Every structure is written in structure tokens, then in C-alpha cells.
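wait is this the right file?? whatever heres the structure
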């Protein structure tokens, strides 16, 4: 800790380390680090103290955090998917194109193997130019159009809000589980979408669930 003009302060990396160790649970530790990465703070070189209370949680959070997350609730939805449902880490805010290279949209979360899109409908998100977020009428219309494009291309879409992640959590988990099960059983020859490229594709080319498309994770230093 240092002082400037008599005010104590810590570096972004130290602040992130403290947050990871002292968060109420693993999900909130990931939420904190996601938010710092989204803000562009230099927290990639973190130093964790072995034996410090919360060290295990901090180390686990480092493996789960992702850059590019637009809101804290997206982080919580992602952790519900990974930690509570035990499902693979989805892509975060990664563009999806049709087979002619046209952008269909940028889903909040995407499980490539299941062809499953998860969207969190919040009132605001990072960088949003719309005061009402997803509740704004024009934004809601744009969301509906994007969802139709995703579904027409063969993707399954599940939408959630804060009430779903909180009060209706068990119902949301059941909805997500059922949607993923349906997605895994889909006829993949009918897929008309691909991740992370804008070149024209043949109808026989399909997304590869093993592609490493995730933004870089924070790097731990000893």
C-alpha cells in the first residue's frame, strides 16, 4: 500500500488480489476480476500469497475470469453455467456469423458444442449507449431481431434477467439444462452459423468446439 497526497491507495493488481481473497464466494471473486479486466485495469500480473486466507478461491477465480464481459450479471450467469451446472466454459461476447460471412450478432455467452446462446437482459451494461439497456423499446426490438437471426441459423437462445439468476435460479438451471440437451441432439447438418470468422464458408464447414477463442486469462506470478 502507498499514499498519495495523504490518501492510501493500492495498485490495480494488489486491489484485484485483495478482492479475490476476500470475496464472499468464488462467483463474486470472478465477478470482481471480470469487472477489472473489462475496465482495462492492468491486473494480469497478480501476486498471490500462499497460505493466505482465501488463496484457493483466488487461484480458482484466476482460471475462471475472462476479459470482455459487459456486466457483472453476465459473470454471474456464466458462473451458474460453469460452477453450478458443471458445464463447459462458454465463449464470452464473441461474434457469430452466418455461412456467407454476415454478422448475426454477439451473444453474451455461447456454448459452441451445444449451439446454445445465453443472453442476460440487464438494465445497463458496460459501454451501453442506451440508458434503459435491454428494457429500452428500441433495444428490445433489436434484441428480438438478433434472437430471430440466431434461431434461424440453428442456435438455441435462453434469456435471463436478475430475477432468474436470483429468485428463479432453480427454474433457470432447469431451462438451461433442457436447452443444452436439445442443442446437443440437434441435426448439425442444419447449422448455418460459425464463430469468429467473416470469410465465406461452405455449408459443410462447421464450428469447432475445440477452437481456443477465449480472451487471455490473467497471468499469475509467483
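ok assuming it is, sequence goes like this
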Amino acid at each position: 500500500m502507498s499514499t498519495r497526497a495523504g490518501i492510501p491507495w493500492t495498485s490495480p493488481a494488489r486491489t484485484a488480489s485483495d478482492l479475490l481473497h476476500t470475496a464472499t464466494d468464488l462467483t463474486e471473486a470472478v465477478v470482481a476480476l471480470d469487472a477489472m479486466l473489462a475496465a482495462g485495469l492492468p491486473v494480469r500480473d497478480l501476486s498471490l500469497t500462499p497460505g493466505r486466507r482465501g488463496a484457493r478461491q483466488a487461484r480458482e477465480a484466476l482460471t475462471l475470469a475472462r476479459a470482455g464481459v459487459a456486466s457483472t450479471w453476465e459473470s454471474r450467469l456464466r458462473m451458474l453455467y460453469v460452477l453450478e451446472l458443471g458445464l463447459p466454459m462458454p465463449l464470452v461476447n464473441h461474434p457469430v456469423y452466418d455461412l456467407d460471412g454476415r454478422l448475426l450478432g454477439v451473444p453474451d455467452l455461447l456454448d459452441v458444442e451445444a449451439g446454445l446462446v445465453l443472453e442476460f437482459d440487464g438494465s445497463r451494461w458496460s459501454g451501453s449507449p442506451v440508458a434503459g439497456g435491454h428494457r429500452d423499446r428500441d433495444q428490445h426490438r433489436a434484441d428480438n431481431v438478433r434472437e430471430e437471426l440466431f434461431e434461424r441459423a440453428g442456435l438455441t437462445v435462453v434469456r435471463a434477467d436478475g430475477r432468474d439468476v436470483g429468485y428463479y435460479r432453480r427454474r433457470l438451471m432447469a431451462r438451461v439444462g433442457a436447452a443444452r440437451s436439445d442443442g446437443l441432439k440437434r441435426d448439425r447438418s442444419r447449422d448455418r452459423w460459425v464463430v469468429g470468422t467473416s470469410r465465406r464458408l461452405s455449408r459443410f464447414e462447421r464450428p469447432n468446439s475445440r477452437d481456443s477463442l477465449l480472451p487471455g486469462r490473467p497471468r499469475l506470478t509467483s
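The chain has a mean pLDDT of 83. so i think its the right one actually
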